[in-house]
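Hi U.,

Before I forget, here's the chain from the pilot set. I'm dumping it here mostly so it's searchable later in email.
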Amino acid sequence: MFARPSRLVWIYFRLQLLHLRSQLEYEADFWVGIVGAAMRHVAGFLFIWAVFRQVPQVHGWTMWELLFLYGLAIVPMGLVELFYDGPWRLSELINEGRLDRVLLRPLPAGLQVVTEASSLHGVGSVLLGLVLLVRAGSELHLSLAPWQYAFAAVCMVGSVLLVGSLFFITQCLAFWEPSTTMSLCTLVQEMTALARFPVTLYEQLFRVLLTWVIPFAFISYFPGLVLLGRPEANAWLGYGSPLVGVVVTFVAARVWGFSLKHYEGAGS
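Structure:
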């Protein structure tokens, strides 16, 4: 019999908390990781600062509007590290034959893979992103309605599902070619940096790619249009941002099920 969804959610958070508690045993590593995660974004800040020292706007975007989008992008990235880091272990599980053990347990195999790992270093990105959102909102004198706060929270959840599920999909290539999956997943991870800026800054090819192929534009750009109240022609797409994460999660589930059918096991 299948476990109830509420029980699966409880098991998921229980397993993730166990990972996080084990990492808290090493206090120095925890703080170094937090600072290191935040420092990863220094280059992005310096780039924005250098640009806006020369010009007041870029394609109609001010510095604080860009930093608002930046915050919207890095918060879910940090949450993915905290709660959706397990797919990075999938290639290792397959190559070492440990996926057999996962399949024998009385829990959904996909749930176990997702909870295979968790990284406390994501806290640094989350905290930095929240600080940016608060500061940028203050500088822009944003006065959000209650529904907009709820919308932002739902978008964050959708973005976590979107990014984590895309990583999961690329990692499933390990069932066919273990040697290439990590490179592809790393490429997709690096492309998340493009979500920190408006897609209108890129050429048409990248706009299409980031909107309809690898939809990272729904992490910050489209939700940002709604929250900032920018009157752009495609702003209506922002209201569907949370649904994109759900759709990509559904696709990831289908890819996972299809991939498992081709798994031969360690003894095959």
